[in-house]
Amino acid sequence: MNATYTPLEFRLLNEWQRGFPLVPAPFAAIAAELGSDEATVISVLGALREQGVVSRVGPVFAPRRVGASTLAALSAPPGRLDDVAAIVSARPEVNHNYEREHHYNLWFVVTAADEATLACTLDEIADSTGCAVISMPLVDEFHIDLGFDLCGGAKRPAAKCRAPVRAPDAGERLLMASLQPGLPLVARPFQHIARETGSREDHVIARIDAWLDEGMVKRFGVVVRHHELGYRANAMVVFDVPDDEVAEVGARLAREPGVTLCYRRWRHEPEWRYNLFCMVHGRSRAEVAPVVERLSQVAGHRGEPLFSTRRFKQCGARYFPTSHAIAA
Fold it and tell me: Is the dihedral of CA 108, 88, 233, 43 positive or negative?
């Protein structure tokens, strides 16, 4: 990392990206484990959030288990890129928006309550920007964890879904909407969420625990921003793999050191022929380049790296606006 963190800051960032205590006073529980006190832990997390190092403390919902989502891209004329990016970023359904080195120079993730709302959002983005949008929904995930081991340790396998896919009910959608921005940094955060949603603290805690158990939530804890942690070389490496090989190749790539995400997405032909995506985050291009070369060798197919050059937006996914969740 480029920045220097205190031992307490480092442990909060590295050790609590998952396994967050689902108890009435979670920050006191963390403080006891770190040899600190509740007020200090809350203050330090608040400062890290203000600095942008921490995005939020809360759930990371599993793709395809909650609402609808897709990776989308468009080709903005160079002179209009900033204006187009601003239009895209202004959409609450967009949670990540990056400029990448490619003819398709703007890449963004769109989430919505359902497929119809997602399709409508993509159409509206195309209309408002005047740029054709290509959409590449997720097909299979081989490794999606979104955590960063700041000690450079072994990759922790992502949790697998342990229950059939189901649609969340109205009460769950309301709770998800309240949790999307992250927990309030107060002594009893689940009590605050319970009051906001007309529930009880113990019910909120039990529901989150059940979501983790069934795989609807991949992890619950501190969500960090890689760029602020010094991982400033962000490459989306894409492969064109025969469909009958993609599962095997994807599984191999997912096990490789340096791969933070690996998944199959639908092609969007003829504009986009690639169907296998890996994310590689490093501190510099020189650090990422040999990883890309190694991945090409492991895959048996040449990977094309699309480096990000600017980050226009990065926040948690918004599947359910509060008004939608209440009305559902």
Answer: negative
Residue-wise pLDDT for 266-318, tens only, equals 999 999 999 999 999 888 899 999 999 999 999 999 999 999 999 999 877 77
d(CA 265, CA 271) in angstroms, rounded, equals 14
Q: What whole-number distance in Å separates Cα of residue 219 and Cα of residue 232?
A: 24
Q: Does residue 211 belong to any structural domain of this protein? A: yes
The verdict on residue 280 lying in a domain is yes
pTM (two decimals): 0.79
Task: Find the domain containing 186 and state its range.
Answer: 1-59+138-328
Q: HSE (CB half, 13 Å, CA atoms) of 89?
A: 16
Residue 53 inside a domain? The answer is yes
Compute, in degrees rounded to 10, the torsion defined by CA atoms 158, 163, 167, 168.
-80
Cα-based distances in Å from 142 to 220, 247, 256, 259, 265 = 20, 8, 11, 11, 11
96, 314 Cβ separation under 8 angstroms: yes
CA pair distance 91, 101, nearest whole angstrom: 23
* Count of the separate structural domains present in the chain: 1
Please, which residues bridge with residue 107 across strands? 73, 98
Query: Is residue 248 in some structural domain?
Result: yes
Cα(104)–Cα(259) distance, rounded to whole angstroms? Answer: 23
Domain of 259: which CATH number?
1.10.10.2890
pLDDT tens, position by position, 14-68 = 999 989 999 999 999 999 999 999 999 999 999 999 998 998 999 988 877 777 8
From 96, 91, 6, select the one nearest 51 (Cα to Cα): 6
**Token duo for residue 37:** 């006190």
The residue whose two tokens read 């309550």 is 113
